[in-house]
Write a structure and sequence with these properties.
With about 210 residues, the chain is α+β, with helices and mostly antiparallel strands. The protein contains 5 helices and 4 strands, in the order ααβαβββαα.
């Protein structure tokens, strides 16, 4: 079979154009390679940025959570302090009312007697003693003192005066020479027990708040 000129031209054309297409494809690939690398680098940068933003958002959320928890805890503590104060006030007022009522009972006279005995025993070396009492206890206290000192045959100069403060029951005995004061009032007893009352209230409030 003979090859015509047309066949040779067609074969030559295919070789030429095939080579051109191959070169063109390689050139396209060579041109696209840098862009591909840039695109990959851009994708990595975007991913890193996304991670950074996510970590920042999580850290911020944690800080906000910690802040809110601290605020809530502080508010709870403030509420407990307020409730403790209110409870203390109510209890102390009730105890004072009970103490004042007690000073009007028959048993209170015996309390005054024992309190005066304790004061005389504690200040047994004193030569002059001033006793401060409630106004309504002036006569009773003087009567008890006269009885006790006469019976004990003690030479003590004493005075019974109305207390200047709002005391509730009992006496305040003062050594005039040594300037020593002995507070045996019911008011003092209540004040001394404030801490115990406060501790009991705090314990109860903590138990309730933890439920």
């Amino acid at each position: 079979m003979s090859v015509t000129i047309e066949d040779k031209i067609e074969i030559f054309s295919k070789l030429i154009f095939g080579n051109i297409e191959e070169q063109s494809s390689e050139r396209k690939q060579m041109l696209a390679e840098p862009h591909k690398k840039e695109l990959e680098a851009l994708k990595l940068e975007v991913e890193e940025r996304r991670k950074e933003l996510m970590e920042t958002a999580i850290a911020k959320a944690e800080r906000e959570k910690t802040k809110l928890m601290a605020q809530a805890k502080n508010q709870q503590q403030q509420m407990l302090i307020y409730q403790k104060h209110q409870a203390m006030q109510r209890i102390m007022e009730k105890m004072k009312a009970l103490a004042e009522a007690y000073t009007n009972t028959q048993g209170y006279k015996e309390h005054i007697r024992k309190t005066i005995e304790l004061a005389l025993k504690t200040l047994d070396q004193s030569k002059q003693i001033i006793f401060y009492v409630m106004e309504k206890d002036l006569q009773l206290s003087e009567q008890i003192l006269n009885e006790k000192l006469t019976k004990a045959n003690k030479q003590i100069i004493f005075e019974v005066k109305k207390a200047s403060g709002n005391i509730i029951g009992g006496i305040i005995a003062e050594d005039k020479e040594e300037l020593l004061q002995l507070d045996l009032t019911i008011t003092a007893i209540l004040d001394e027990n404030k801490d115990k009352v406060g501790a009991a209230i705090t314990k109860r409030l903590n138990e309730v708040s933890s439920l």
